[in-house]
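hey m, so remember when u said the tokens were messed up on ur end? i reran from scratch. heres the input so u can diff it against urs
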Amino acid sequence: MCNVQDTVKKQSRLLPLKAFNFLIYGTMVIFTSFFQLYLQDAGMNKQEIGSLIALGPLVSLIANPFWRFWSDRLHNARRILLFMMTGTLLLIQIIFHVSTYNMMYLAMILFFFFQSPLFAQSNTLILGYIADTPQKFGTFRNWGSIGWAIVAVTAGLLIDRIGISHLSFLVTGILLLAIGTILMLPPLRAASETPPIRLRGFGKFAINRYFVAFILLGILVSVPNAMNNTFLSLYITELGGSKTMVGFAVFLSSILEVAVLVLFHRYLKRSLSTLIGCLAVVSVLFCIRWLLMADATQPLQVAFIQIMHCITFGGYFYVGTQVVSLLVPPVHRASAHSLFTLTWGGLSTMVGSLAGGWLFQNFGGQAMYNTAFLLAMFGAIGFGLMWYWLRIQGHHPKPDSPEDDELDDQLEEYH
């Protein structure tokens, strides 16, 4: 009986952690989905907006290792996260009150320095609190996905009522609530162990022809996805959609993502040729998605097309992570996964925001999505050829590069 009571008490102490994930993801979805509309309302054109958003992944190259270093040195992820959130909160007040473009760019650089590593540090915080407990990471992470979907659709309704000029009040309010949930958590003086990134031997897999092809083809597929992420809200409003419709589109794009991950984990065969074939199919689905977006004439059509995001983005990232695990020896897997994430979420976001802004500004949204279709098509053809080659030649990893089940263990958390 005492053990049951102790377990219930420990779980109740971590309820603020679930609330934190809900709120921090909710804060970020407001920023990523509606901030572009605020910038447009403030007088910036699409090319300027794209260049501003492209600063994020560039700054994160410095910000992520900087905050990770201090988190590991102080062994206090909670304190570091509070410091980052406080900096983000203060800079939000500056961003929404600057009057010149130069000041906006400077403020955004500082903002991204505090904001861009928030998700990584929040994951570290979760792992630190659930260490040596039966709690599962996925239980807490799923609250982030729920917050992303629910806050997006709720924020759209509110912004239509209060106006986009009052966006700062909404972001500030939710971020303050998120800071409050962190303060409610018990002290934590432990940092979860993260595998070191080993540079020695990096070249052995960096010149692996399958790995290099996978990374390059992935960039072709992910750049169009970055274009869509950056300019979706502007495209919807250009078609006559409201802020509510923007929130509804984001809601539809994320609500089924966890279910898709679970289905892939349960039913997808873990062989390299099967996984590459799956990436070819997902790339074809991306092509269809971008063609539909280019042909859309109503904002509601765009919203329902976003349902495909759950399959295309969720499927590609899941399968891509497994491909890395099969192509790279365990000792270098942390480095390989970092490179995969860097190219998919970092380099592609920079290129997609800059190129997408130029295309959207000069030729319109339809031209931007037609270009996205062409890039995804080249990626699909490349993955199709890679699948065919693997079916003919096979894949024969070296004996000292065994395929382990570490990703299965991580994704088992979602069950």
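this time it looks ok to me. The domain at 202-394+405-415 is CATH 1.20.1250.20 (Growth Hormone; Chain: A;). if urs says something different then somethings off w ur setup not the seq
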